[in-house]
Amino acid sequence: MPKITIASRQLQADSDQCLLDSLLNQGERIPHSCRSGVCHACMLQADKGQPPAQSQQFLPREKINSQHFLACQCYPIADMTVSLPKSKPISAIITAIEKPESTLAVLTLAPRQPLSYLPGQHLTVSANERLSKDCYLASSPTAQQLTLYIRRKVGDPFSTWSHEIARVGDKIHLGQPKGVGIDFESMRNKLQLICHENHLAPVVSIIKHYCQLRPESEVILNCFFTGSEKPDIKRFFQDMTARYNNFSFRFLRYSTTKQITGIVSEASSGELIISGNRNFIANIEKTNIDTSQALKLLPIKERTLR
Ligand code: FES
């Protein structure tokens, strides 16, 4: 059995169990959540020894090069010395706060140092020791500044802070980007997105990035809204059509599965990304749209991919 050293303690890794379970069973406190390689909460760093390749397959190149790996995907075959990654938070200044509608605050942030991320990734934002939240990034990774969409939610102190207290010039702290980002390098096709207005942030990041990266490919968004129509969100996407020639969108009332089928029935060719909560995604899956290869982006708490 391979020996694993962590914080000077030597433990046995059980090769039938992932390293996360081996460490947890022996009393180590390792952050974790999805157990399926998606959230990256269980990321560790190998200070000695080589992590198995499969434990690094969901990580960006720079993390692989620095010997990071996911404990939930790791079945050790050799001895390793491992540690929790030491990543310092990055400070950032709020440079703009907009409220396109009463329940949505859009924060623009200038980080003190460049942040490398992919569309579809999220990070922890902290206003102070007690106020923090995991948020999807809504900006293109090529933009100088970062964009966060914060929905006002009852019982969510960070959302209250963002809507009522935060001011331009305030300093906040950002964790390292997490989650499986979408690498568009191998994608060249038409890109179609189906989303609910409550889950726009990753979709906006994807649209901005893909429109720039593949100006020759069509990008079509079907954005569903519940309740009254949101003119400011509609105007936001209209502005994007002026900025990107290859982008078009439809703003649609979300009601019955039957209507969804009619409205988005042609959305079944090319790459497909669906963004919304589990119910929304389940309703799209009930239609005649082929969602078997679709990338599904859930809210961070419900998250899983493909
Ligand atoms: S717990 Fe390992 S990636 Fe989520």
Helix content: 10-25%
Mean pLDDT: 87
**Portion in beta strands:** 25-35%
CATH superfamily of the largest domain: Nucleotide-binding domain of ferredoxin-NADP reductase (FNR) module
Kindly, what is the distance between the CA atoms of the first and last residues, rounded to a whole number of angstroms? Answer: 33 Å
Number of helices: 7
Largest sheet data = 6 strands, antiparallel
Instruction: Report strand order across the widest sheet.
Output: 9-8-11-6-7-10
3D architecture notes:
With 306 residues, this protein is α/β, with parallel strands linked by helices. It folds into three domains: 3-83, Roll (Ubiquitin-like (UB roll)), CATH 3.10.20.30; 90-174, Translation factors (Elongation Factor Tu (Ef-tu), domain 3, Beta Barrel); 184-302, 3-Layer(aba) Sandwich (Rossmann fold), CATH 3.40.50. The chain has seven helices and 16 strands. It has helices at 19-25, 61-65, 157-165, 201-213, 231-243, 257-264, 278-285, and strands at residues 3-6, 9-12, 43-48, 68-70, 80-83, 90-101, 104-111, 122-128, 131-136, 146-151, 171-174, 191-196, 219-225, 247-253, 271-275, 295-297. The strands form three sheets. A six-stranded antiparallel beta sheet has the order 9-8-11-6-7-10, covered by helices on one side. It has a five-stranded mixed beta sheet with strand order 2-1-5-3-4. Strands 14-13-12-15-16 form a five-stranded parallel beta sheet, with helices on both faces. The longest helix is centred in the last third of the chain and has 13 residues, at 201-213. The protein binds FE2/S2 (inorganic) cluster. FE2/S2 (inorganic) cluster binds next to loops.
